[in-house]
Amino acid sequence: MATSGNITTAGTGSPCGACKFLRRKCLSDCIFAPYFSSEQGAERFAAIHKVFGASNVSKLLLKVPIHDRCEAVVTIAYEAQARLHDPVYGCVSHIFSLQQQVDKLSGH
Q: What are the domain boundaries of the chain?
């Protein structure tokens, strides 16, 4: 990832998707830049921001070891999408549905 002044670029000169969505300058140390591309990241980040808030996710990611952050972002994005679909249960409703299917297939 190249940097040009204070703006993070991924070879395109564009801010990361999170900063693009938030309409802010993307700094070289942006916590979101490695996980939200300029091309697709804004749409993906929108759900995360709506459900959890950018500040909360930033604080959370700072507490996660760097080598685990990618998996954390995937999990947060999945839960955000699930919460938009089912605000009460989120991904738990999907897990419950899969559990019912397993029970049905195993004859319980």
A: 17-106
